[in-house]
Amino acid sequence: MPRTKAGVRSAEKDHELAVRIGQRIREARHRAGLTQQQVAGDRYTKAYVSALETGIARPSMVALTHIAERLGLPASHFIDETNPAWTRLEVDMRLASGEWQEAADGYRALLVDATEDGTRADLLRGLAEALSRMDRGVDTIKAASEAARLYEAAGREPDAALARYWLAYGLYQSDNEPDARSVLTALLAQVRGGLHVEPDFEMRLLTSLAAVESRSGQAARALTYLEEARGLAADLDDRRRAAFLFNLAISYREVGDFEAAIRAGTQGMALYRAAGAIFESARIENDLALAYLATGQVERARELASDARMQIETTGDERWLAAVADTEAQIALAGGDPDGALRLAADARTYAARSGNDLAGMTAMLTEARALRMQGQLEDAETRFGQAAAAARESRTPARLREILREWADLRAEVGDHRGAYQLTSEALAVN
Q: For residue 9, what pLDDT is reported?
């Protein structure tokens, strides 16, 4: 599909802004008497600085901050705050560098005065991505739906496809896997039918479909999507390849191939660290801890979980603190410390309740049930298994529900309630 006039104008504007930033970088470098290599330092290359100065490349906020520090200037020196267009570029760069809240705030501020439909659609799509990165599914759905509507009215189908991708992301975060799957499957058919979006768009769709199938308890199907995407991931930048490897590691762990999960997770973590994405690196560390725990390497799991907590605590992200606290609780339980497991699982439930992370809250209930059973508090364990099962039914996570029901059935059989054990086992077998 040919590019629309609105798309051409947007690309021209972005190029003009990149050229102006590049000019300011070059002027500041000359005043400082530095070479391009000296400005690049050991983090970037001379060629990258040259591309920035000529406007061929557009800097991320991370890169701009690094260059500003090398030149002894604030990053704001390179961004004309009196020109609204520069503000738009800054917001886009904050999104690209992973500063999700700042990006969301910026897009909302720009939307206040935006009246042209094409501009509003671009801002709404950026807002949808920022919100989805912060797990705000309902808000993501609203922004992405409006962006898709505006793009479709303007005949900008590739842009509409990107907006619908974030719509699917929001649906997934809102536990609406059927609709997320439907949107993603339709987009995949469009791309394979000839719609040209972004170079890695097909791979992103396959990865997202894998996440949906994994959440739905179809781990083998999820792994099939990821293996299909593997051949498309070779040319990705470090950050996107790391995200792919993260999803691959999770799927390997869920189908029981823990060695493959550790390999993929370790590679992804190294790439995230090289890209300076500490928060994402910590998320992989948490998943790696679970993979090592499954192989019986408790101490290694403890080291990884401890480092993940330290990194995530600096962000204050309680959604992921809930996940890490439960991982630590599982490690304590594996180490024969049910008291410590109960304390950490209670922390996980508190974080989960405050942040709306229902899945982490459900997993923490299961950990508590296991710890109570280990302590011999069978009545309390029975109650907690029941609560965990109810949460799993509500969140529509069949794989986890089957796991809970089977362990609950074992507990009932242990106390002599064979009829109750049979009922739970039957329910587990019927879950799909």
A: 45
Angle at CA 10, nearest 5°, toward 8 and 15?
95
Which of 169, 190, 187, 171 shows the shortest CA–CA distance to 179? 171
| Backbone phi, psi, residue 64, to 5° | -65, -40
- 């739905």: which residue's tokens? 216
236 token code pair: 């990705």
| Residues belonging to the chain | 432
Tokens (6 digits) for 13: 């504007």
- Quick one: which of 355, 375, 360, 369 has its CA closest to 409? 369
Q: Is residue 120 a contact partner of residue 114, using CB atoms and an 8 Å limit? A: yes
What is the amino acid identity at position 254?
A: E
Unique residue bearing structure tokens 């059927």: 178
Minimal CA–CA distance to 340: which of 352, 326, 353, 351? 326
Instruction: Give residue 386's identity as a one-letter amino acid code.
Output: G
> Which amino acid is located at 233 in the chain?
A
Predicted model pTM: 0.62
- Residues 188/206, Cβ–Cβ less than 8 Å: yes
Instruction: Please give the backbone phi and psi of residue 135, each rounded to the nearest 5 degrees, phi first.
Output: 65, 35
| Percent residues over pLDDT 70 in the chain | 93
Confidence band, pLDDT 50/70/90 cuts, at residue 13: low
Report CA-CA distances (Å) from 206 to 5, 115, 122.
30, 35, 24
Ordered structural domains, the chain, with CATH: 217-311 (1.25.40.10)
Weakest mean pLDDT among 280-284, 287-291, 341-345 = 280-284
Rg (C-alpha) for the chain, rounded Å, is 24
List, as one string, the DSSP characters of 203-271: HHHHHHHHHHHHHTT-HHHHHHHHHHHHTT-TT--HHHHHHHHHHHHHHHHHTT-HHHHHHHHHHHHHH
The tens digit of pLDDT for each residue in 350-363 reads 999 988 888 899 99
State whether residue 275 is helix, strand or coil: coil
Angle between the N-to-C axes of helices 157-173 and 177-192, in degrees from 0 to 180, rounded to the nearest 10: 160
Residue of 322, 304, 303 lying closest to 313 (CA atoms):
322
pLDDT of 2 above 50: no
- Rounded to whole angstroms, the maximal C-alpha distance in the chain is 83
Sequence-distant (6+) residues with CB within 8 A of 383 are none
